[in-house]
Amino acid sequence: MIIGEQLRKARTDAGMSQEQLAEYMAVSRQTVSNWENSRSYPDIERVMRMAEFYHLSLDELLRGDRRMVKSWMDATNVAKTGRQLAATLSLNLLLTIGVVVASPVWWVAAALLLALVGCIGTAFVLMIRLI
Question: What is the mean pLDDT of the chain?
């Protein structure tokens, strides 16, 4: 059973309307309808709130819906890559400043410049992953 069917069953078993659940979850009724018809997925926080509210385990709600789990995993990977990109860009900035400051000492500047080139390559690879 996919999560939309599980959510609809849990809501109807609790005797709630889509409007009531939408108000409890601070979303629109249309959003609840989209979840129940598997047109979109609730975020993990809302799934946890619904599981708690309906007295179901996350396993009971998520079991069998591989598309949703894959969607969450993809979103997590994008966020992780974004954080890595931000860290790499910050390191690029620090290395650039280091090259400028260390320019009188040629071998230090050369080493920092090589590190900067590697860091730029890493940032490029991370940006490609995000596309």
Answer: 87
Distance CA 99, CA 50 (A): 53
Q: Is the pTM of this model over 0.70?
A: no
Check: CB of residue 21 under 8 Å from CB of residue 49. Answer: no
Separation CA 110–CA 129 (nearest Å): 29
44-64: pLDDT as tens digits: 889 889 989 888 888 777 765
* Residue ranges of E strands in the chain: none
Give me the residue label for tokens 């959003």: 31
Please check whether residue 30 is in contact with residue 93, taking contact to mean a CB–CB distance below 8 angstroms: no
Q: Given phi > 0 = left and psi -120 to 50 = alpha, else beta, which region is 15?
A: left
* Dist CA 81 CA 122 (whole Å): 11
Length of the chain: 131
Query: With 0-12 CB in 10 A as exposed, 13-18 as middle and 19+ as buried, what is 15?
Result: exposed
End-to-end CA gap in the chain: 32
